[in-house]
Write a structure and sequence with these properties.
about 140 residues, mainly alpha, about 0% strand
Length: about 140
């Protein structure tokens, strides 16, 4: 019985020590140029994946990074996407990057799309982008 109590006390002490030491580690953002380039290359490779979740999340993070290298692959993804969710993420990322080619693609899709949901999504995103950048809808 005494051995069991000592074992339990040791286990909880070790657990408390380990959990508090890891809890104090600060999050360090990646700032070196080579690390960012490697991450960007991995996301670009993710756009070519057959796994839909990886493809969409890669598109989202490339937009968050404002990756100029991702404009053409995102435009391709936008044109080839069959579901509106994928088009939404690709359009959003293109507008976050702000390249004129991507912005024009989203604008023309908003005006000319046969699909009502895609047209509405692109129109909303383009209007929000236009208000943020120019202060007015263009």
């Amino acid at each position: 019985m005494k051995t069991l109590v000592l074992f339990i006390a040791f286990f909880f002490s070790a657990f408390a020590l380990v959990s508090t030491s890891f809890a104090q580690l600060p999050f360090a953002p990646i700032t070196t140029g080579s690390s960012v380039a490697i991450i960007e290359s991995n996301y670009l490779a993710g756009l070519e994946s057959e796994v839909q979740g990886l493809k969409v999340s890669s598109a989202f993070f490339l937009g968050e990074m404002e990756s100029e290298r991702a404009v053409i692959p995102l435009m391709k993804m936008f044109r080839e996407a069959e579901d509106p969710g994928t088009k939404f993420v690709a359009a959003w990322s293109l507008l976050k990057i702000g390249d004129k080619r991507g912005v024009y693609l989203v604008k023309t899709e908003a005006e000319r799309s046969d699909c009502k949901s895609t047209s509405c999504i692109c129109e909303y995103l383009y209007k929000k982008y236009s208000l943020d950048v120019y202060g007015e809808v263009r």
